[in-house]
Amino acid sequence: MHQVRAELSALLKRLPWSVEPLDGFSDDNGWRKVERPASPGWSADEQAEVEKLRQRERELAVFVSTHRYWSETTGPDRVQARSELKHAHDGPPPQAPPGDA
């Protein structure tokens, strides 16, 4: 899921700010100034790629959240397991040196 999310994020950063072609604008009446250049919009292929990645991200989220593991884990064990899952990409926790137990 992290890989799909990273691919989607990178794609969205490369694409113009607006899906549809729009003129640029500048607005300094809010609490901060906002400026956007004119946007040519996204091509049909770019829109399809974004939708494909978003759909894959949803599929993976449903797969993880409805996995049978979660029905077999209860109470504090479930909370601990979810916390560990959130940090799974961080790598294993550091090991204590021998004799420090």
Summarize it:
The chain is 50% helix and 6% strand. The protein is mainly α.
Give structural notes.
The mean pLDDT is 87. This protein has one domain. Strand 1 and strand 2 (34-36) form a beta hairpin. It is built from four helices and two strands, in the order H-E-E-H-H-H. It has a two-stranded antiparallel sheet with strand order 1-2. The protein starts with a helix and ends in a 15-residue tail after the last helix. The longest helix is centred in the middle third of the chain and has 22 residues, at 44-65. The chain is mainly alpha-helical and 101 residues long. Helix 1 runs antiparallel to helix 2.
Please render the helix and strand layout as text.
Layout: H1 2-14, E1 25-27, E2 34-36, H2 44-65, H3 69-72, H4 75-86
Antiparallel strand pairs: 1-2
Strand content of the residues, in percent? 5-15%
Largest sheet: 2 strands, antiparallel
**Poorly predicted ranges:** none
Structurally, how many domains make up the residues? 1
Mean pLDDT: 87
Strand elements, count:
2
Distance between the termini: 35 Å
What's the total helix number? 4
Class per helix and strand makeup: mainly alpha
**Radius of gyration in whole Å, from Cα?**
21 Å
Percent of residues in helices comes to 40-55%
Strand arrangement, largest sheet?
1-2
The succession of helices and strands, N to C, reads: HEEHHH
Quick one: overall form? elongated
